[in-house]
Specification:
By secondary structure, this protein is α+β, with helices and mostly antiparallel strands. The protein has 2 helices and 7 strands. Strand 3 and strand 4 form a beta hairpin. The strands form 2 sheets. Strands 6-1-2-7 form a 4-stranded antiparallel beta sheet, with no helix packed on it. A 3-stranded antiparallel beta sheet has the order 3-4-5. The chain is 34% helix and 33% strand. Helix 1 runs antiparallel to helix 2.
Length: 169
């Protein structure tokens, strides 16, 4: 694992990205990659750019590394937003079920808050888990936009027990 002043990342070189299936069969996406493990040093404050080299194709990739305090803060904020989205989801769902299940007299319409609650249910259903998972996986290292030939690369946080060549479905 990484120490206080460092972050561990894998530089992935995507070997293949295939989508199989179609109308009658379910679609399956298979991504095959190789990865190289790097430990990058965090700056004392702010952010700085580091250069990482892909071991597969020798491409030079630029990554931005944030300091430890900012990384912790951003990860905590994303997790809190995910939790708040879960609370809003359940509150809006309960309100929509409560108001939508009423029998209204002729000529009376649902309250103006009803369509807002329906939209909130759909938005927070996606946003909540996304923010929470991204907050848990955030390590403060992100790849800067690479030129066209280098776009088949990714920078990911290191996970324990992962192999060097992996097929993910």
């Amino acid at each position: 694992m990484s120490t206080a002043g460092t972050a561990e990342v894998d530089v992935r070189h995507v070997l293949s990205d295939k989508v199989t299936g179609g109308i009658l069969k379910p679609k399956t996406r298979t991504i095959t990659w190789t990865s190289a493990h790097y430990t990058v040093k965090r700056p004392p404050s702010g952010k700085h750019t580091v250069e990482l080299t892909c071991t597969e194709c020798s491409a030079s990739l630029l990554a931005e590394v944030r300091d430890q305090a900012t990384t912790r803060t951003l990860a905590a904020v994303m997790r809190v937003i995910g939790i708040v989205c879960a609370v809003v989801f359940f509150a809006a769902l309960a309100y929509a079920i409560h108001e939508g299940g009423k029998t209204l007299p002729e000529g009376q319409s649902l309250p103006a808050l009803f369509p807002i609650s329906v939209v909130a249910v759909f938005v927070t259903f996606v946003a909540g888990p996304t923010f929470y998972v991204n907050g848990r996986n955030y390590n403060g290292v992100s790849m800067l936009d690479a030129p066209k030939p280098r776009r088949r690369h990714q920078i990911r946080p290191v996970r324990a027990g992962r192999s060097r060549v992996r097929t993910r479905r």
